[in-house]
Design a protein that fits this description.
Helix content: 55-70%
Largest sheet: 3 strands, mixed
Number of helices: 6
Distance between the termini: 13 Å
Strand content: 5-15%
Oligomer: single chain
Structural class: mainly alpha
Radius of gyration: 18 Å
Order of helices and strands: HHEHEHHEH
Strand order of the largest sheet: 1-2-3
Protein name: Carbohydrate kinase FGGY C-terminal domain-containing protein
GO molecular function, one term: kinase activity
Pfam families: FGGY_C (PF02782)
Organism: Actinomyces weissii
Number of strands: 3
Length: about 140
C-alpha cells in the first residue's frame, strides 16, 4: 500500500507549490503522481519477487488509463521500464472471453490467441525520469 491517496496528492501538489494552478496542471500532476505510484508498486513487486522478475520486464497498462498517452510515457519514465499499452476495455474483454469459453465458442487456452487478434498493443519507451524522481522524493518526504 502506498503512503498517499489521490486526494492527498492533489492537496499536496496545490499547497506545496509544485507548479501553476489550472486544469492542465492538475491533469499533468495527477498523471505524474500515478506514474510515481506505478513505480512504487513496481519496486515493491521487484523486492517481493526478486530474481523471478526480469529487470527488463515491461509494465502493462490496460483499462481507462491506457487511453492517456501522458500517463503511459510518465509511467515508463518513472519505472525505467517499457510500458506495453493494451486494451482500454480490458475488463469487458476478459468478461467476454470468459463467456465465450463457458459456452464453448472458444476452447480453454485460446484466450491469448483471441486477444492477440483483437488488441493492438503498442510499446512506450522510458525517457528521462529526473522530474518524476524529484516529485516522488518530495511526495515521500511529505507523507513519511
Amino acid at each position: 500500500m502506498l503512503p498517499w491517496s489521490l486526494p492527498d496528492l492533489t492537496t499536496f501538489i496545490r499547497f506545496e507549490g509544485l507548479g501553476p494552478e489550472g486544469v492542465g496542471w492538475d491533469v499533468g500532476s495527477l498523471a505524474a503522481a500515478l506514474a510515481c505510484a506505478h513505480a512504487a508498486y513496481a519496486e515493491q513487486l521487484s523486492r517481493v519477487l526478486g530474481p523471478a522478475l526480469a529487470a527488463d520486464a515491461p509494465v502493462h497498462l490496460v483499462g481507462g488509463g491506457a487511453r492517456n498517452t501522458l500517463l503511459a510515457q510518465m509511467t515508463a519514465s518513472a519505472c525505467g521500464r517499457q510500458v506495453v499499452v493494451g486494451a482500454t476495455e480490458a475488463s469487458a474483454l476478459g468478461n467476454l472471453l470468459s463467456q465465450l469459453e463457458a459456452t464453448g465458442a472458444i476452447a480453454p487456452g485460446q484466450r491469448a490467441q483471441v486477444v492477440a487478434r483483437t488488441v493492438r498493443p503498442h510499446t512506450v519507451e522510458p525517457a528521462d525520469p529526473e522530474a518524476l524522481n524529484l516529485m516522488q522524493e518530495r511526495l515521500l518526504d511529505a507523507v513519511g
